[in-house]
Amino acid sequence: MEFFDVVKKRHSVRAYSDKPVEKDKIQKILEAVNQAPSSGNLQAYEIFVIKDEGKKKALAQATFSQNFVAEAPIVLVFCANPERSKNRYGKRGGGLYNIQDATIAASYSQLAATALGLSSVWVGAFDDSEVLKVLGSPKDLLPVAIVPMGYPGEEPEPRSRKSLKDLVHEI
Fold this sequence. Notes:
Elements: H1 3-9, H2 23-34, E1 45-50, H3 53-62, H4 68-71, E2 74-80, H5 82-115, E3 119-120, H6 128-134, E4 142-150, H7 164-167
Antiparallel strand pairs: 1-2, 2-4, 3-4
């Protein structure tokens, strides 16, 4: 799929078919994520690929009962690694750059999923400590985004967007 078609086709999908996502597609998504730009090329994030039904249900509870999280064939959890950035960039690295790295990586995962015929949604509403419990309580990580993905079980209509004149300021 051509890049601008991918951008246009990507929509938030909260219903998935029960068709499993092929391992090679998961690998391609992760390889695309690995190409995402990051501050100082530190890649100050960690990715957890969740397929286990029990863990997906626990993640759904951690997202304040957004049950579609558990219904997706796979769920990617992107966590920022503040120490990795802080060591090189100090306070700003530990407080911002690692979060930027994780969000860019999560965005790449969504675009790659779309290019492969999959759908996803960005979930940002969750209890950090509960998510970390599901992930095995890794130390010093900050959950940033949960991205359920799979083959779409719905085709939502595109939502309206703000006009560029409301967003762009030439100075």
